[in-house]
């Protein structure tokens, strides 16, 4: 069931609103709203925006259903990309990996109005990236699941990420086949591209360009993006 369904009902009951009154807020009939609350019909983005505004929430907060960021799944997304053979030595530059994860989360939201991992991304110089990205890498390295190699590239320090041989039999169960497919599509598009190319691409997207430095990036901005610019 979509995360926001239970939240709609909880907010309505908590604030003593009838189904008919909420139906009027989003401009649908009561039977249609009843179907939405029962999980038989999905909200459109415009309807979600109206409800979020009505309950004084951001669209991200509303659509997330208060689901906490899933660190385990985010780590599994990292491992999934490392298994996709994006380079001959199976190593991915840290900055490029961060961009692939971002594109996956926002592309998934573009199609499903939900983040894949639940992470909140921040606009920083080498972003967009969630604050937990660096912690996730540190923990994966500490647990012996990945290797982080330091390399000097033209005077600039570069960190290359790869999965450790001892971890390659770990089963990844948190990522669905549909999620893996879009991750694979993203990997194929950027497989032979340089890190700076994917950095430039994400920085030119609406979510990054419309936000201020160090600001959390609202997922709903990606829905305004041209389809060819989603990833």
Automatic annotation (TrEMBL):
UniProt xrefs under InterPro entries: Cro/C1-type_HTH (IPR001387), Lambda_DNA-bd_dom_sf (IPR010982), SocA_Panacea (IPR025272)
GO terms, molecular function: DNA binding
One of the Pfam families matching this protein, by short name: HTH_3
Keyword Hydrolase belongs to the record: no
Record SUPFAM superfamilies: lambda repressor-like DNA-binding domains
Keyword DNA-binding appears in the UniProt entry: yes
Residue ranges of domain HTH cro/C1-type in the record: 8-62
CDD domains: HTH_XRE (cd00093)
Keyword terms of this UniProt record: DNA-binding
PANTHER family: DNA-BIDING PHAGE PROTEIN (PTHR46558:SF4), TRACRIPTIONAL REGULATORY PROTEIN-RELATED-RELATED (PTHR46558)
Name of the protein in question: HTH cro/C1-type domain-containing protein
